[in-house]
């Protein structure tokens, strides 16, 4: 369906905006609230995408909107380097206490997840005086030169954009459903982590390595979730060689897995943590939080940026933290995860196309396969499923190297009725795909 208003907009979009910033759906949104988006023709969509993991507390949460308006009435920008303000420092203090680690921490702010990752790498290299960075297959860390180099998938993120940043080394991630070593759990134990010791022999010396960077649950890579033994072993090896462990929580953080940070599920204390996306409820803001003895090493003026830690974004983030903890949205996140796991595992039993259900909390995914034995990716079926869901009023996203993984990133404020309707649409659409 289209209207004159919609057609006029799309014609302008085609003539004015390049194809590079692609559109996942054809929706043109007029307004949004909670877990529902409404397009310019008045059609409602239940949102299982959350702005790609940005709207954990929902679209236009009243407390976040109020914080934005209040700060905008005071001042919009000074540049923290020119004129400091309390929201920056207060937010840093709160994150220092929320990020795991029984040691003193410090936080700096930037604008995007990619900027946070870039700064974390800069800090690790400065502190260790080493250049090498180890990242992982299936990982996604951004689209800038350095973060695109860290990102694994070639199309669409890296294709044609080389040459890439040097001293980037990539090793297999613990993708148990498609084990890169051909092993099966539980026999493999921590082989994927132990492999780092061998990797030091064949790829990069540990004395040359500044940091290992990993997503606790891979986002664009397919919501790949390591076994419980993995991160403790990886952290142990990093500590042995004085290598910084950077945990990228850009998509998995801000309560998305039922805990404030996903790495808390593994009980380790990273040297550096990056956050963005849902941290400020839709405003551009990212953070690097880490050990004080690492964060405070770079010289004055070596870190920062004109817009980094904008006062409106910091105020929005303070409101997000209040909503998450004081308004019990963390508890809601856990409850959502339990409901989703129950519904998805039930779907898996009745739909052969679902090869695996994985993730933590409401950060869950369905990997679609043509055959459970061969695990051949059901890429076209995933595309068809997304389109059918859209036609029925549900926005859902795919991910993974083959685009065959359906992921859930709905706002925590979604009502039980909206959740049930969305899941019913998803299951009905699955049945249509499987016919």
Write a brief structural summary.
The chain is α/β, with parallel strands linked by helices. The chain has helices spanning 4-16, 50-53, 62-74, 86-98, 113-128, 145-150, 191-202, 230-240, 292-295, 311-326, 329-350, 379-391, 416-434, and strands spanning 29-33, 36-39, 44-47, 105-110, 132-136, 168-171, 209-214, 244-248, 272-275, 286-291, 354-360, 363-368, 394-395, 397-399, 405-407. It has 2 domains: 4-60 and 328-434, Aspartate Aminotransferase, domain 1 (Alpha-Beta Complex), CATH 3.90.1150.10; 75-326, 3-Layer(aba) Sandwich (Aspartate Aminotransferase, domain 2).
Topology diagram in text:
Elements: H1 4-16, E1 29-33, E2 36-39, E3 44-47, H2 50-53, H3 62-74, H4 86-98, E4 105-110, H5 113-128, E5 132-136, H6 145-150, E6 168-171, H7 191-202, E7 209-214, H8 230-240, E8 244-248, E9 272-275, E10 286-291, H9 292-295, H10 311-326, H11 329-350, E11 354-360, E12 363-368, H12 379-391, E13 394-395, E14 397-399, E15 405-407, H13 416-434
Parallel strand pairs: 3-13, 5-6, 5-7, 7-8, 8-9
Antiparallel strand pairs: 1-2, 2-3, 4-10, 9-10, 11-12, 12-15, 14-15
Characteristic key phrases:
single chain; alpha/beta; Aspartate Aminotransferase, domain 1; Aspartate Aminotransferase, domain 2; 2 domains; 7-stranded mixed β-sheet; 4-stranded mixed β-sheet; 13 helices; 37% helix; 16% strand; globular; Aminotrans_3_PPA_site; pyridoxal phosphate binding; transferase
């Amino acid at each position: 369906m289209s209207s004159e208003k919609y057609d006029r907009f799309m014609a302008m979009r085609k003539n004015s905006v390049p194809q590079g910033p692609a559109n996942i759906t054809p929706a043109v949104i007029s307004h949004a609230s909670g877990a529902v988006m409404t397009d310019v023709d008045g059609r409602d969509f239940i949102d299982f995408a959350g702005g790609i993991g940005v709207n954990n507390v929902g679209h236009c949460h009243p407390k976040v909107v109020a914080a934005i308006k209040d700060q905008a009435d005071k001042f919009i920008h000074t540049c923290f380097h020119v004129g400091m303000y309390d929201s920056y420092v207060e937010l840093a203090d709160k994150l220092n206490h929320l990020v795991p680690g029984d040691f003193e921490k410090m936080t700096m702010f930037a604008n995007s997840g990619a900027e946070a990752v870039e700064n974390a790498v800069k800090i690790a290299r400065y502190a260790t005086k080493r250049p090498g960075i180890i990242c992982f297959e299936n990982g996604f860390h951004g689209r800038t030169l350095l973060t695109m180099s860290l990102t694994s998938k070639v199309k669409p993120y890296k294709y044609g954009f080389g040459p890439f940043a040097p001293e980037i080394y990539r090793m297999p991630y613990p993708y148990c459903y498609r084990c890169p070593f051909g092993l099966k759990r539980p026999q493999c134990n921590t082989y994927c982590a132990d492999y780092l010791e061998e990797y030091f022999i064949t790829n990069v010396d540990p004395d040359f390595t500044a940091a290992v960077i990993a997503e606790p649950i891979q986002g664009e890579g397919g919501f790949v979730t390591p076994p419980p033994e993995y991160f403790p072993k990886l952290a142990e090896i990093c500590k042995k060689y004085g290598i910084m462990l950077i945990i990228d929580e850009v998509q998995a953080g801000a309560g998305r897995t039922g805990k404030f940070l996903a790495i808390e599920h593994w009980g380790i204390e990273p040297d550096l943590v990056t956050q963005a996306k849902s941290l400020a409820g839709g405003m551009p803001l990212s953070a690097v939080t880490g050990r004080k003895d690492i964060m405070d090493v770079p010289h004055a003026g070596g870190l920062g940026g004109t817009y980094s830690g904008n006062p409106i974004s910091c105020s929005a983030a303070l409101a997000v933290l209040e909503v998450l903890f004081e308004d019990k949205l963390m508890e809601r996140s856990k409850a959502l995860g339990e409901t989703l796991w129950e519904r998805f595992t039930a779907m898996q039993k009745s739909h052969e196309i679902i090869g695996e259900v994985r993730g933590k909390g409401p950060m869950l995914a369905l990997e679609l396969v043509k055959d459970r034995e061969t695990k051949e990716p059901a890429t076209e079926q995933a595309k068809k499923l997304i389109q059918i869901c859209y036609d029925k009023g549900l926005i859902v996203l795919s991910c993974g190297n083959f685009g065959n993984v359906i992921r859930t990133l709905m706002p925590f404020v979604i009502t039980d009725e909206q959740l049930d309707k969305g899941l019913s649409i998803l299951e009905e659409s699955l049945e249509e795909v499987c016919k």
